[in-house]
Amino acid sequence: MLRSETLRSYLERGISQLSIEKKQAGIEARRLGQKILLGKRIDEHLGAMLPVLMRGERKRNKVHPSELHDGCSRKLWYDINEEEFSDLPDPIPASLQLTFDIGHFVHLYVQECLRQQGILEAAEYPIRNRKRKVDGRADGIVNLRKKRYVLEVKTHGDFTTKHLKYAPIEKHEGQASFYANELIQQGEQIDGIIYLYINKNTSEIREFIRPVRKDLVRAMNKIVDEGLSKTLPSKRKCKVSDSQRACSCPYRTTCWDQS
Ligand code: SF4
Fold first, then answer.
1. Is the ipTM of this complex over 0.95?
2. In which domain of life is the source organism classified (predicted)?
């Protein structure tokens, strides 16, 4: 009896002590919270950096393979001919820039893992074709069991995971196939493409090994040919001037003012 009484009072004292400490911790956290706001600082910093980052935009008089799948030959034509922007898209918010940067760091992490194992032959492998003004970079070239693959690394959230059951996303297949095809045309040995999808929330990795999608490459080459032609392609990709694609196009007004 005596023992259980002692134990009870001991526990009660402990609980009341804990609740005092919890309150003090809350007061302290509120006091510190008014002084340290790192998330806000990062937001402000990225916001200030954005004009600088945007000046370093990709060159406009080049064909960028990442924009070719389901792309617009008219937009490419304006890019190649360095037409003035008629509609500047809204700058990307700082939080989105942070998402891009995190994706970039995951790329570096994967490339370094593969490099340390002697699998990665080269990272950010340049894909160039001067005549066709192609300027891009594959995430890497990997050597596995005497075969040579183009490496495509993608980071994504849970939403994309649902679309990754059996195959890579077609847009990504288009981009990587275009790279692989350019290298094959230039005489390099390419035996296929390895796609690594990394879920940023769970770190789960999904992997696909696929051949070059010639059907997608043909469609993308058609866009390049039209975009490099002397005259503005007559066919618009956008059906109406207020479609989502048109509204994010920097040549929207010019495009819809011209026939
Ligand atoms: S507005 Fe649409 S059709 Fe016109 S250039 Fe831009 S993407 Fe192409």
1. yes
2. Bacteria
Q: Ligand 1: which atom is nearest the Cα of residue 72?
A: 8
pLDDT band at 218 (very low <50, low <70, confident <90, very high): very high
Residue 166 located in a structural domain: yes
pLDDT at 34: 58
- Residue 67 CA, ligand 1 centroid: distance in Å: 13
Our mutation pick for probing the ligand 1 site, out of 68, 69, 73, 74, counting the most ligand atoms within 8 A of Cβ, is 74
Confidence check: pLDDT of 54 > 70: no
Query: Is 14 inside a domain boundary?
Result: no
Residue with tokens 């075969």: 147
Tally of domains within the chain: 1
Q: How far is the CA of 237 from the centre of ligand 1 (A)?
A: 6
* Confidence (pLDDT) at 122: 96
- For residues 74 and 236, the answer to whether their CB atoms sit within 8 Å is yes
Alpha helices in the chain (DSSP H): 2-33, 38-55, 73-80, 94-116, 158-161, 170-185, 214-227, 244-247, 252-257
Round to whole Å and give the CA distance between 1 and 4. 5
